[in-house]
Amino acid sequence: MLAIENLKAYFGKNEALHGISLTIHERKVTAIIGPSGCGKSTLVRCLNRMHEETPGARADGRVRLRDQDIYAPGIDPVDVRRRIGMVFQRPNPFPTLSIRDNIAFGVRVNRVAPRGRFDEVVEKCLRRAALWDEVKDNLDASGTSLSGGQQQRLCIARALALEPEVLLMDEPCSALDPIATAKIEELVTELKATVTVALVTHNMQQAARVADMTAFLLMGSLVEFDSTTTIFTSPKNRQTEDYITGKFG
Amino acid sequence: MNVALEASMTPPRAARTALLRRKILDRTMRTLAAAAIGVAVVPLFSVLWEVLRLGLPGLRPGFFSSLPVPVGEPGGGMGNALVGTLILVGLGGAIGVPVGLLAGIYLAEFGRGRLARIVRFTADVLSGVPSIVVGIFAYTVVVMPMNHFSALSGGVALSVLMIPVVSRTTEEMVKLVPTTLREGALALGCPRWRATLQIVLPTALPGVLAGVMLAVARVAGETAPLLFTAFGSRFWFEGLRQPVAGLPLQIFTYAVSPYDEWHAQAWTGALVLVLLVVLLQLVIRLYARWRMH
């Protein structure tokens, strides 16, 4: 689905990712774990070309989305982001827009659906993000009037509105309480029937609960990539074992 | 035991004097700070009080609706000057606000290179330039080629004064918008310009409006740049290419005249000018509050 080959990322002169190769499989949840500063976020931000939005940052290597290299010359990052959605660490609904418009925004910008079908799309996405029942009577309220967990689900709904092929989630639960976290995890498990998910997390239990595949990153390099069961029960690498058993990190 | 406890709770002599000194210092500083507020506020209120006291008697409906009359004739007003000020500030805003806004957005969103540094520096210098210099500039650039004093040249002069204020506040306000919002929009396949216009700018809007308000308030009372651009007029507005009256100009002319009636009218004009600025502030503030909800 997403084949990453020798991906290097830089902040100015500093190389943050030292040539990462891994494949994110279709309709699976791939978790990316590792200690703080190991490059997990940078890696997913390279996958929809958000990395280069940071001043001084650039990336090279190949990332193929269904046989199309998203880093090939002539590829517009805007088109990449239409196909690869992203959910951020902190919920970031647009504060000046209503709940409805938060979702309609992307639909309108990308002309995914005609204006007459907006309400339909809004309802569908909110249902997919398991938020519809909580907000259906309040669609005109501001996106920021919701609780943190609801805001994050709104952001997921907003990303789903573009029917992305891949959904990148950058520590989506790190700002949420355990109950809101459980809801998001449940949602991720449901979503993988239709979308490919790459999930960055520093919570190993979370990776174990929701991911089919797990990649362990350390200091900008990929240490081990295997099925989640293998990583957590019989890791081949010593460093992986030390990390998941809590000896460091 | 009890005695020992009591002894330990009474601070030694040295500590007691230190405490006393600290208390005295605290009192003194507080008194000084209060006095400073008094010094800052007294002139402000006495100005308002004087303007009200001397301006209020002349404030009748006719003041807003009639033209100035020659000395000795009863009645007369500054209707034309009020309209002229609205036109001049409107013109200044129509030119200055879009330019300042775009410059501010550019500086905040894209301004990293050398060009941005130059623009920023220029804006800073420009906001410090005495307004009479701006008047001379408008005189050279607009009045001389047109061979005529005009409302247009006055508007240009005011717009030059507004641009740095608007652009610097816009820049600061846009920079305050969290990067996560910008990234949120970009991640939805939104082109950069659209994310800026539809997500970042609306979020920064209340602050940006405050900047615009500040610029309008500053410019509404400017006299120097209008002296040889808008020039002033005793008649109603006659078109952009003709000289036009302005409240500050009229106040200036009346205040330096030797006639008591004109002095009284100058005070009333000043009062109207103050009220105008207050009213503008109120309207923009209410709008910003309404936008937020």
Structure in words:
- The complex is a heterodimer of chains A (249) and B (293).
- Chain A has 249 residues and is α/β, with parallel strands linked by helices.
- Chain A contains ten helices and ten strands.
- In chain A, strands 6-7-8-3-9-10 form a six-stranded mixed β-sheet, sandwiched between helices.
- The model of chain A has no long low-confidence stretch (mean pLDDT 92).
- The relative contact order of chain B is 0.13.
- The mean pLDDT of chain B is 88.
- Chain A binds chain B through residues 48, 50, 53, 55, 78-79, 81-82, 85-86, 88, 90, 92-96, 105-106, 109-110, 155, 158-159, 162, and chain B through 112, 178, 180-181, 183-191, 194, 198-199, 202-203, 205, 291.
CATH topology of chain A: Rossmann fold
Q: Tell me the span between the first and last alpha carbons of chain B.
A: 65 Å
Radius of gyration of chain B: 27 Å
Measured by residues with Cβ under 8 Å of the partner chain's Cβ, the largest interface is: A-B, 25 and 20 residues
Could you say which overall geometry of chain B the principal axes of the C-alpha atoms support? flat
Termini Cα gap of chain A: 30 Å
Unreliable residue runs of chain A: none
What's the β-strand tally of chain B? 0
Secondary-structure element pattern of chain A, one letter each: EEEHEEHEHHHHEHEHEEHH
User: Could you name the CATH homologous superfamily of chain A?
Assistant: P-loop containing nucleotide triphosphate hydrolases
What is the annotated CATH architecture of chain A?
A: 3-Layer(aba) Sandwich
Number of domains of chain A: 1
Gyration radius of chain A, in Å: 18 Å
The share of residues in extended strands of chain A comes to 25-35%
Q: What is the name of the CATH class of the largest domain in chain B?
A: Mainly Alpha
Q: Which regions of chain B contain 5 or more consecutive residues with pLDDT less than 50?
A: none
Helix content of chain B: over 70%
Structural class, judged by helices and strands of chain B? mainly alpha
Largest sheet of chain A at a glance? 6 strands, mixed
Do you know the CATH architecture of the largest domain in chain B? Orthogonal Bundle
